[in-house]
Specification:
Elements: E1 18-22, H1 29-40, E2 44-46, H2 47-55, H3 59-66, H4 68-82, E3 88-91, H5 100-109, E4 111-116, H6 119-125, H7 138-152, E5 157-160, H8 166-177
Parallel strand pairs: 1-3, 1-4, 2-3, 4-5
Helix pairs in contact: 1-8, 2-4, 3-4
Length: 179
């Protein structure tokens, strides 16, 4: 677990209007977003869920039928709808924060928190099915993980989410947000 001395602060003018949880697939973004929303009494939004509702299709089906480029454009549109809101916790998709424009807008609109989980733990959490289209090829997944971690490291905070309990993660996050 990170201590306040280990916090990765990339912007001294943090905005706590919104919280954006970023990180690799299966890092626990949705689970932590719901717990933080409940603790803070803030609404929770999940970008992947919103995409599935808007498109009336599962993420894997969108990738299969329309491709990743189309998926990313829909993802960007959903993010843009969330940016003006105030007092929400957002679970981003694993690739949302990788896009430089998305990342800049997220970091301006609120506080970004990277749920950092080692690849070995991610692999244990991922089911061996096609629900995660980018996780089918494990060698490509390892490269994708490495590439994405570079982007995730530009979040305001880094939270080691590999072994701590959900309650501990909520407590640490809330502690960081207090003035």
């Amino acid at each position: 677990m990170e201590t306040s001395d280990d916090i990765n602060r990339t912007d001294s003018n943090l905005s706590h209007n919104n919280l954006y949880l970023v990180g690799f697939m299966a890092a626990g973004k949705t689970t932590l977003a719901r717990a933080l929303g409940k603790h803070l009494d803030w609404p929770t939004e999940d970008i992947d869920d919103l995409i599935e509702v808007q498109e009336s299709a599962r993420i894997a089906d969108i990738f299969d039928r329309r491709g990743e480029t189309y998926f990313r454009s829909v993802e960007r549109g959903i993010l843009h709808k969330l940016l003006p809101k105030q007092g929400i916790v957002v679970a981003t998709g694993g690739g949302t924060f990788v896009d430089p424009d998305n990342r800049a807008q997220i970091n301006r609109s609120g506080t970004s928190i990277w749920l950092d989980v080692p690849l070995g733990v991610i692999l244990q959490r991922l089911p061996p099915n096609r629900d995660r289209p980018l996780a089918v090829d494990r060698k490509e997944l390892a490269q994708l993980y490495k590439t994405r971690c570079t982007a995730y490291s530009q979040a305001h905070f880094r939270l080691d989410a590999s072994q701590a309990s959900l309650g501990e993660l909520v407590k640490q996050t809330v502690k960081w947000l207090q003035p």
